[in-house]
Specification:
559 residues; 20% strand; alpha/beta; 7-stranded parallel β-sheet; disordered N terminus; single chain; Rossmann fold; 36% helix; binds glutamine
Amino acid sequence: MKQDGQRWITKKMNKLIFVSGGVCSSLGKGVAASSLGALLEGRGLNVRMVKCDPYLNVDAGTMSPYQHGEVYVTDDGAETDLDLGNYARFTSGALSRINSITTGQVYETVIRKEREGRYLGRCVQVIPHITDEIKNRILAAAQEDPDTDVVIVEIGGTVGDIESVPFLEAARQLIHEAGRSNALSVHLTLIPEVAGGELKTKPTQHSVKAMQEQGIQPDILICRAPVILDEATRRKIALFTNVDPDAVFTSYDVDTTIYEIPLIFFEQKLDQVVLKKMGVESRHANLESWYTMMEKFQRRQGTVRIGIIGKYIDLHDAYQSVYEALFHGGLETGVAVELVKIDAGGLEESASLEGILGPATQEGGIHGILVPGGFGQRGTKGMVKAAAWARTHKIPYFGICLGMQIMVIDWGRNVLGWEDADSTEFNQSTKHPVISLLDEQVDVKNYGGTMRLGKSASLVEPGTRLFASYQARTIFERHRHRYEFSNSYRKAMTESGLCISALTPDRSLVEAVEWPDHPWGLGVQFHPEFTSKPTGASPLFRDFIAAVRDTALAQGQGL
Ligand code: GLN
């Protein structure tokens, strides 16, 4: 965030801010940490975000989206916690595998070193060996880029959880070693409302006590509450917790969007208090992009309904980046986006899709269909039905990764007439494996090692919708998949009209397909949702929503 080549910071520093949570989970710690990051970037500081995840998985790649929400993929192909997606949407610092620390990684390293005899016969213990490894990883992220000014480290879980203890202990040691003005503790808690509308501060008092038992005195409290806390309540909390009254902030419930939270914190002067406590002088806040975003939000007119056909639709977190990117697309095109989550499995049994997918009217139906990424066969028959419906009824369709493969399967089955056309992921013995593993992958059995992961280039065909969106011949997006469009079907598919709109630069793999004679039917093998921001939507999400809006209006549907 250097402007005009100038450094805004008067003092070279590398500050640490630890964000922990108490009382209960799901208070929005990731959004709070990211919002603080956005505010500090607004002050011209270079911010890096780090997530510590107390689970024993080495990474999120093997976790079910049902259990843990989406797997967020970084440029360098790390499969990380979905909070890194929040960081990417709110802040602009680089994110890679170094920004995601799990208990699994920490133990894996320590145990490997122990097996290699690197502890020279000493007894290997949680303190200091596990905590040292955590500290090393946090400092490695802090020192990776010499221009980093502040590192915000979010500690997953809730204070009091057994799993979080080594991370809090590492934070305690780092705060002690760095000195109070170089390392801060921000603690997020809940202020519940009981019958009669009274706000209760006791859980917050207990939560801060739990932090103090870990040896950490929070410097700043962010209280999740239904409304902004008044002066008296803040004073009461301050009295019980040793926190300054002006360092007690409220993250109150918003009925606008989570992207307003940086501005809500700004109005309460969170950035000023943080900078003062760290002894940092900075430029005046520049939050123009966030105010512009809120203006766009307020100016939206009409609502488009997007049907998301997936197998994990019960859990919002499972497709978080996709849902956010749709919202960003709406901001950019001036419409609200209503998510209509449709279980793909349910569609398999429905005789007609008429009642579920459209046509859209004022009362119901949907204006556009999106099939997101996914693994495994369940629900894919329903997804193919939805794709065929969108294709034949001229409803805009956006296929992401699996959603693109579904377009190809539909084309094989319903245009080329190969009833058993399928991906070998779902049917190994199909006579028409239109999606399959590459030859060199077939014998690899170890999950995790065989995926195309992370950022890579695609070559876009001029004159296509994809080109119209990116306005570039070479684009870079992230991948996370194992199966590919089978090259032996390229000829039959294109001769029958399917457009291949992008390839890998060596032209060996298909990266995107489009339907001919259709308002907007596009599938991409990569994941554009991971790079979409509220202050700058992914071009594909922007153009999908624009096509949905224009098609609905052209068909005389009110929005
Ligand atoms: N299951 C498909 C594959 O592995 C698609 C993956 C995805 O959608 N992320 O190729």
